[in-house]
Amino acid sequence: MAWGCRRQSEASSPIPRRRLPAPPSCAGPATPRPPARLRPNLAHFHCAPAYPLPRRPLRPPRPLLQAEIRIDDVSAYQSIVDAEWSIIYDKLKACAESGASVILSRLPIGDLATQYFADRGLFCAGRVPRDDLERVARATGARVQTTVTGLTSDVLGACEAFEERQVGAERFNFFTGCPAATTATLVLRGGAEQFIDETERSIHDALMIVKSTMKSTRVVAGGGAIEMAVSRHLKEYSRSVEGKQQLIIAAFSRALEFIPRQLADNAGFDSTDILNRLRTKHAHE
Prior knowledge:
There is one protein chain. By secondary structure, this protein is of the alpha/beta class. It has 2 domains: 23-185, GroEL; 225-283, no CATH class. The chain is 40% helix and 11% strand. The strands form 4 sheets. The chain has a 3-stranded antiparallel beta sheet, with no helix packed on it. Strands 1-4 form a two-stranded parallel ribbon. A two-stranded parallel ribbon has the order 3-7. Strand 5, helix 2 and strand 6 form a beta-alpha-beta unit. Helix 5 (225-238) packs antiparallel against helix 6 (245-256), helix 5 (225-238) packs across helix 8 and helix 7 packs across helix 8. The N and C termini lie far apart (85 Å).
């Protein structure tokens, strides 16, 4: 594949520019070409669209190393350029003929591919984060592809509706009615970053509490109830121990009462009265 060329001759002359091959004819009405940031409500499907998720970039790739091809005539140069464009058009044709309505890629999608898909009424998005791509694949039942060769219907996912909406100053793609969706997305908005960060931490704490509750159905009482119960048992046990160990155990039982005392002080209650009532309640149980 050619990324550059140099003509060797005694009298060097510039290579004349030639028109690049035109893309294949569009079957159907053309739609406006979407910009890099998509307009709101540009794509709205209600016909169970399918989603191939290619990992290869849908544009002419850049070489990792410096490549040089030496040719003797202009026609050879044009054949190299035609071969390069035919490769990218073959990839785009394979995606369009797979039956997909939405095409997502982890790598960038160039302007040529964007216009090609837009002419055929297809939605495409590049530079999708890996986590988002995998979540969409699991929810829609699609499988991430490393090549566009041999695309079949069994690798495509589906959902009831796909819509792009604008929320505030940002635009989001919404996949609704996914057959295998087990998660949901929360969009947090606020006036400052510190409010957003604090809200995110609060939601994370709440989700972790629910997760722990689902794993274990046992409930542990709070508010110093555990500490007061252990303190009462240690006091009773210390009376059966002889020597200095009795004093050590009794001191440890009194230290456990510091937690409910501090909780009462933080809440604005009389800690001494609260502790006396807690000792009475625990002693009668």
